[in-house]
Amino acid sequence: MQHPGRGDRAAHRIRATGLVLLCAHLLFVGWVTLRPLAVPWVTPTNLQPLATIRTELAAGPWEAAEGLAGSLLLLAPLGPLLPMVKRQLTGSWTASFLRTTGAGLLVSVAIALLQTDVPGRTFDVDRLLLNATGVAVGHLLLVPPLRARLRRRHRGMRPPYGRPDPQGGTPNISRVRIAP
């Protein structure tokens, strides 16, 4: 039996930090998105994709940046946090990207469904698209550097017993024999 090495402790710390940050971020998102709004009017429900985005772009660059950036940045931290929590920083990059973006879209749908009963909040399909895009961009910007850093760190480590495998697999342990 191998004892946990330095790499196991680091992976545990990364996962624990990611879990704490993920919980804190989801609490913040819930607080921001599920509070009732006291407004004299409510925007109508939008089921037509890209209609709100076109409207905000037509209002001018400052209004568009202000309106669209909020939706893009709301769930963007999920891009790097979900792979940290699920230990997907060392696996397949494509699978991690697709799982993270899909999970971000599901979180966005859950928020949109919860907002239907909140006064002053309405459903907007463009918010779903922008939130999922924010998760994807957050993943693309932060996960590749994290993966490269972890690879550099693990490249210099030696397993606790035996000599290292060239492919990075299970180390050879000299006292283990094959049964006759």
TrEMBL record:
Coiled coil: none
Membrane-spanning parts: 16-34, 67-85, 97-116, 128-148
Keywords: Membrane, Transmembrane, Transmembrane helix
Residues in VanZ-like domain copies: 24-142
InterPro entries xrefs: Teicoplanin_resist-assoc, VanZ-like
Segments of this protein annotated with the region Disordered: 155-180
Keyword Ribonucleoprotein appears in the UniProt entry: no
Tagged with keyword Transmembrane helix: yes
PANTHER family: INTEGRAL MEMBRANE PROTEIN (PTHR36834:SF1), MEMBRANE PROTEIN-RELATED (PTHR36834)
Protein name: VanZ family protein
Annotated source species: Streptomyces meridianus
Species lineage: Bacteria, Bacillati, Actinomycetota, Actinomycetes, Kitasatosporales
